[in-house]
Amino acid sequence: MPGLTTWLAVLGLAGLSTALAYVVFFQFIRRSGATNVMLVTLLIPVTAILLGWLVLGESISAHEIAGAIVIGSALLVIDGRALSLLRRGA
Fold first, then answer.
1. pLDDT at 77 over 70
2. How crowded is the C-beta side of 34, counted as CA atoms within 13 Å?
3. For the chain, which residues make up each domain, given as ranges?
């Protein structure tokens, strides 16, 4: 049976980290709109890869770099600001 420290750690992770993340997430939706929040959500895999490389010393493959470029390109298209700058310049 897990000890008191383990249960407190589980409750801390569930209560503080997860609940706080949901509160912040829905506040972002309220303030910025669902599209902008979705843009940030799509960066989670890229962030996980970079943190794995920085913190854990994992290697990054060419497939992961290509995936990050695809995600970045899609974010630029979805956001629309880059395309509007191109239209103004033309």
1. yes
2. 0
3. 1-32, 42-90
